[in-house]
Write a structure and sequence with these properties.
Strand content: 15-25%
Distance between the termini: 20 Å
Order of helices and strands: EEEHEE
Strand order of the largest sheet: 2-1-3
Shape: elongated
Helix content: under 10%
Number of strands: 5
């Protein structure tokens, strides 16, 4: 399985963790976990820390998740591209075939 991402993530097949990806090429071998028939694939990706800091700086935030000794980002700072960026693709190494899964949930 391959998918572009911008932060570390874990892949699960049928509820079981099968591997972690934290850098390119963002691939996890799920071959030992899939079974004949339907399978459930989950990809959980972390957000970038800078985006969390910007989120906590937003007006009206009742409870901040982060803390820093000094303010680091303004509420108007742009969020960085983060998380799962693009579709998940399954690769079949023996045949060279690929299968694109449905678009990621946002």
């Amino acid at each position: 399985m391959t998918t572009p991402a911008s932060a570390p993530g874990v892949s699960l097949v049928n509820g079981r963790p099968v591997g972690y990806a934290w850098k390119a090429p963002w691939r996890v071998d799920i071959g030992g976990a899939v079974k004949p028939g339907r399978n459930r694939l989950e990809v959980k990706v972390a957000d970038l820390w800078v985006n969390r800091l910007i989120g906590d700086a937003q007006p009206g935030v009742a409870q901040k998740i982060t803390s820093t000794p000094q303010p680091t980002y303004l509420p108007t700072a742009p969020l960085r591209p983060s998380g799962l960026i693009g579709p998940v693709t399954l690769l079949a190494p023996a045949s060279g075939r690929t299968a694109r899964l449905s678009e990621p949930r946002r």
